[in-house]
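Thread title: Can someone regenerate the structure for this chain?

I was given the following input by a collaborator and told the matching structure tokens would be attached. They weren't. Posting the sequence so someone can regenerate them.
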Amino acid sequence: MKFVSTRNNENIVGFKEAILNCMPSDGGLYVPYEPEDLRSWILYADENTSFANLAGTLTSGLINREFSPLICEAIATRAFTFEPKVKKLDENLFLLELYHGPTGTFKDFGTSYLASALETILQYTEEKSILLDATTGELGSCIANALRGKTRVKSVLLYPKGKIRGVEESDFVWNGGNIFPIEVDGDEKDCHNLVRKFFQDRDTVKKYHLTLGNTANIGRLLPQAFFYTFAFTRIKKQISGGIYYSMSTGNYGNLVSGLYGWQLALPVNGFIMPTSNNLKLDPRGNVQVLDSFVPIDLRTAADPADPSNLERMEHIFKENALMLRSFVYPADVSRKAIEDACKELFVKYRVYADEETSAAYAAAKIRKDITGEEDSAVVLIAREAPELDEMFIRHNIGEAPARSEAVTRSMKRVELNRPAISPNDSDYITSVLNSLNLRRIF
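Best answer:
Regenerated them for you:
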């Protein structure tokens, strides 16, 4: 599989280039150039196929022209010592739980895969890379877990002051680990601005081999397509009709990765989600992407620090924009509907549902106009461990789930005991990058 920029059809690169130099110079985002037809691979897998095995098979199908099956298999098996869970709630409703990784969030899958892909490829090419990201804690915890034991990849993480969590002292570079955390005396926006400043300078990106651990990097986003294939293998023998996935919006990464699954020939009938500021219903009840009203050549460059994946979705349907209506089904969901959904999931199915999962369930109930056929199935996507949204759940049902060990670790605050830098101090970050570039162990 090759990858192309959303803003330049001639900017075509391989998998290695797409993940190591993840922000195209034309201001776009990398997307699959010509999606592979993996129908035979997908239909062969069943409920006994592990997630790691499935990911290895699909990785081989996707990038086998660039890397050997051995490398493809190594990427997946090293990445996934954990897997999602699919629960059947009733005859036509399933729950896909994506929070059974080391930190209790779906991001564990993408960051673990990206770290494994980078490490595996860089070992063969004898190169190195540095992830530079802003985080309020969750992404940093995922990256720290993903980079443990790696020798070719390090990460510089920018946190608002007092927000470091889920990282062990052994993860710090000065203790022999792969994480260099930096506290910024400001807010998340200040951290994002610093990341943007570095990625605007192509020479700096090249000099320090900088890349990203968020979904601006296609290597972080693409493996999320495996979620849908995994769910399909678990339910395909239990249903006879169409399959719809209902999810929260987030930065639209799960929606886009689901659409990539469809492009790879995964059987799927549509994706349901609550409306958002950018994804709405038009007067006829069809999906409307507000960004689409701005011509792509008049837009600012894609944001490396806080990406939205709507441009990737637009690219999927650029040849036939009307097809979008056949796959994406937004729903206007009220606050009351979300709270009622939380209560119903608990009363009917004993499911502790966070706000995002509750909103997805509420949206699915509203869009019965498309899922109402007796043999159609809806798969709810639960992205985060419910105990991460303890206050919302307790407010609605009067109790909350106990915290798992993974979530307890990921929520543990860390005192850095180092001065926070000012929001404009890019020189200090440069000095850190220089120190990492010169480390012999790196």
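Residues 190 and 423 are 6 Å apart (CA to CA).
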